[in-house]
Amino acid sequence: MTTRLDAAALSRHPLPRLATDGDKEDRGIVLIVGGEAVMAGAAILAGVAALKVGAGKLQIRADRASAAAVAVAVPEARIVIAPAMTASPLVDHAAASSALVLGPGMETGRAQRRLASRVLHAATGVTAVIDAGALPLSNEASAFAGVAGGRTVLTPHAGEMAAILNRDKNVIRADPLGAAREAATMFQSVVVMKGATTFVVSPDGTAWRHDGGVVGLGTSGSGDVLAGAIGGFLARGAPPVDAALWGVLVHASAGADLAAAGAPLGFLARELPDRLPFILARLGAISEASV
Fold first, then answer.
1. Looking at residue 80, what is its pLDDT?
2. Beta-carbon neighbour count of residue 17 at 10 Å?
3. Least crowded by CB within 10 Å, which of 52, 98, 209, 272?
4. What are the start-end ranges of the E strands in 116-176?
5. What's the CATH fold of domain 26-281?
6. Cβ contact 211:2 at 8 Å
């Protein structure tokens, strides 16, 4: 059984209220750790999305070669200079963060998963989104759950879930909800099983279903925006389940808005974050949070 993910479902999972006299410190710090310089755009998309849903402060890892470009692209961010796949310069920043987004733009490999593991170890108790190449594999489940269980959101698509569970991609496509439930239990994490129909599953097997994702969301960078939005909600203090539910719905709604404006296909991932604050306002999330 699944619950339909819509505005009514979100009303049962409200975002944490923000004090009217608060400031950016009250809305948390997000640290984005993405891939190498050739994929720096993924971390930029995730970081902008985190700010657009209300995170207070943003930090983005970049190497020296790309740091200036990332800083210009996102002047609101602090750039943490660290070589790709090197954890030691990140650990203090991770421990001081409110939420982590690990993986945007990362290739899949042992070094990427090791980096994510080291950062999670350093940031005890900090909530996190794990995406793309940082996603753990089934043979790492026990160690991952022991370190990060209860505080993480995993955001795989069908191909990534196939790698996680060591299954054929067509098997995952035939039963995405079953795969999401298996992974959620295995890693003791909230799982966002991405697709035209997206499932959000908690470690106890409770599941929500979002139907009707527009075709235009199937584009490069769209998943990075989703990961960043979930990270932004985590930074604001939302529990992992709530952050995932809000992230999935506002991301899908951003795509629906762009499609309704006359471009069902061909809009860019960079166009999605600008819609997020308006969707939150439409859902009553901003005014409600400011009471």
1. 98
2. 13
3. 209
4. 127-130, 152-154
5. UDP-N-acetylmuramoyl-L-alanine:D-glutamate ligase (3.40.1190)
6. no
Q: Are 236 and 39 in contact (CB under 8 A)?
A: no
In the DSSP assignment, the letter for residue 208 is: E
The pLDDT tens digits of the residues spanning 46-57 come to 999 999 999 999
pLDDT (mean) for 219-241: 97
> What would the pLDDT profile of 187-218 be if each residue is shown by its tens digit?
999 999 999 999 999 999 999 999 977 999 99
Q: From CA 231, how far away is CA 25, in angstroms rounded?
A: 15
Residues in Cβ contact with 152 at an 8 Å cutoff, skipping those fewer than 6 apart: 120, 127, 128, 129, 130, 187, 189, 190, 240
**Residue 258 CB neighbours (<10 A):** 22
Q: CA-CA distance, 211 to 200, in Å (whole number)?
A: 12
Distance CA 31, CA 97 (A): 6
The upper half-sphere exposure of residue 223, i.e. CA atoms within 13 Å in the direction of its Cβ, equals 26
pLDDT at 290 over 80: no
């991405």: which residue's tokens?
194
Quote the tokens at residue 130: 């794990």
Give yes or no for a contact between 161 and 179, defined as CB atoms under 8 angstroms apart.
Answer: yes
C-alpha span between 100 and 33 (Å, rounded)? 8
